[in-house]
Amino acid sequence: MLRLRMHTLVTCAGLATHTAAASASTSSMLQRPWFTHGSSLSRDRAQLLAEDQDAALVSGVFVPVTPAGESFTLISGDDAHSLLELRHADLPAAHLDVEEWAWIGCRPDGQHVFAVEMQEETGRAAVKVAGIEVDVSPLRNVADGIACPDDAAVLSTARGILHFHRTHQFCSSCGAATKAYKGGAARACTNRDSCGARVYPRVDPAAIMLVTSPAEVDGRTHALLGRKRAWPAGRFSTLSGFSECGESLEEAVIREVEEESGVRVRKSSLRFVVTQPWLFPQSLMVGFTAEAEPGQPSGGLPEVRYDKDELEDCRWFPRDYVRTRLVDHEGDGGISLVADTSGTPAEEFHIPGKVSLANLLITQWAHEVGPWSPETGGSNFESPS
Q: Do 252 and 345 belong to one domain?
């Protein structure tokens, strides 16, 4: 019979969990971004390659993902989603080929975690335990409902690595078939005589930045937030954009902000915050904070002249306004990526949910925690030169 590893909030106890930035604490610690593994999983592939890999597979667990990239999750009574894992002994015969597996990581107890592609019908048929409800959906649709950050990280990595394997079945140099290599870390061309090329997962770096008003104007108490036309009503977020060929991430911040909003960033104010895997399908979000240059000739808040092809709206929001609207039960004010906000208080203003790095950047600024905490004494921000 299928064995399931059911995660609850207790599973995450003692780990570096994602906690809302709006807590009563004024901690200066940076919160853990969603989809990151923290200390819950070692990614040291050498550990796997040095072991008896057959034994690692037999004792490991497997996270299924459909060929369409949809994730399998378990649904509890409170509608929270958690990780569905299969044991090696429970895999259908058609999935026992080692070529189908991709290593994700190793847990502190030595258990290895693998990703495996599986049709929805096959996965559902394997779950025969009474009272178990399984959901199969795009991860973006359910991510905000995942209770445990460790589960979210595994689901995200499984989806991302299998997307790589699914889209690189043939060598781009010679056209020959490829096969999994180094436990799924790469794919190798099977035409060893005249090619032998190897390809690794593509990662697209993108800058995501919280731009504030200049310190000398109002003490950084306004944030520049924009919205896209396709988003739920009332959603505003930080600006972001991909780094272009030959461009540093810092240069991408400056260019994207000016292109999208018409606001110029003070170069000396740029500060790196944290990164987040965003495997939809293959991005790495790199978080920054920055100050705008004062408006000219007034010396006050700079005028926003946003690109209407890129954004539906973009403006300066006062900290007090944002803080009073972060009203959900966790205090992060976030709404699911796919929520319908029509006719709700969120229709006026809300920010993306906990899975987005924008949520972390905005809530820490709004509640004056993390690098904005009074405890730091401003040590994370230098005075403008």
A: yes
